[in-house]
Amino acid sequence: MSTSTARTNTAGTSTAGTSAARIAAARIRYEVRSYFRAPDSVFFTFLFPVVMLALFSVAFASAAAIKAGPTSVDYATYYLPGLVATGILLSGVQALGVDIAGERSDGTLKRLGGTPLPVMSYFVGKIGMVLVTTLVQTAILLAVASLLFGVTLPTDLSRWGTFAGVFVLGIATSSVLGIAISALPREGRRATATIVPIVLVLQFVSGVYLPFMQLPTWLQDVASVFPLRWMASGMRSVFLPGTFEAGEPGGSWHLGLGALVLAGWLVLGLVAYRLTFRWNREDG
To answer: What is the pLDDT along the chain (284 residues), one digit of tens a residue?
Structure first.
């Protein structure tokens, strides 16, 4: 290959890469704008964890602190980790599942399939939207918890490292599962009724609203199959004192096992997406 040909190929590859990056960035901007223009998404996904934190904090303001050994925390501190994890699940599984199912039903996916838009750019836009909205949502949640309800945030860098790991893996897993579960509703108008109950049940059995160890053993075992239980316990390891680890199954946060479960669901979601996603669904 001549020098000029090599330069041409390199320039072509560079231009293609830049073009793909621009398309992906444009899709992320479009998806974020569309997200915040939908009142139901903003309230039931973006603001929901903040509203629930405020509700629990005010409702239990005069209740006795929750103790674990010699350490105690107020209700705002206790509920914060589970609500951070819930926000990740809502932004990924619920928001994406409902959104993509609606786009399939109203013909948006079919129209996009007839354009030069690469399918990967479409998904980069969706996952980028989840990342941006979840980052903003979590920042607001932590600010409200700290400034309005006096929650003491961690100062240990290792805890924030754990937070970053659970956060990133949780977003990746929830986003892929949201894409996969979007194939479940047969019609876009049924998407909310199909997906929201699944997400709501997981919140109640995964230690978000109820202490996980107070659930029946069989229900703990069922919940431990799903990702939210592990995202919630991972976030508890970040925001709760170390004495609360004794209140987890086996007296441990089990961060390694949680990471494996989330990674397993990530792989499962990728397989399901490959098998089920189409630009246009053909109903038999």
So the answer is: 554 444 444 444 455 556 777 888 899 999 999 999 988 888 889 999 999 999 999 999 889 999 988 999 999 999 999 999 999 999 999 999 999 999 988 888 888 878 888 888 899 999 999 999 999 999 999 999 999 999 999 999 999 999 999 999 999 999 999 999 999 988 888 899 999 999 999 999 999 999 999 999 999 999 999 999 999 999 999 999 999 999 999 999 999 999 999 999 999 999 998 888 877 654 43
Per-residue DSSP letters for 98-121? HHHHHHHHTTHHHHHHTSS--HHH
Number of DSSP helices (H) and strands (E) in the chain, helices first = 12, 2
Give the pTM.
Answer: 0.90
Residue 103 phi, psi dihedral angles, 5° rounding: -70, -30
C-beta of residue 229 within 8 angstroms of C-beta of residue 206 = yes
Retrieve residue 44's tokens.
Answer: 């039931």
The Cα–Cα gap between 115 and 249 comes to: 51
Task: Enumerate residues 6+ apart whose C-beta is below 8 A from 210.
Answer: 204
Give the tokens for residue 103.
Answer: 């786009």
Angle at 136 between CA 209 and CA 256, to 5 degrees: 55
Domain map (residue ranges) of the chain = 13-276
Q: What is the DSSP letter of 90?
A: I
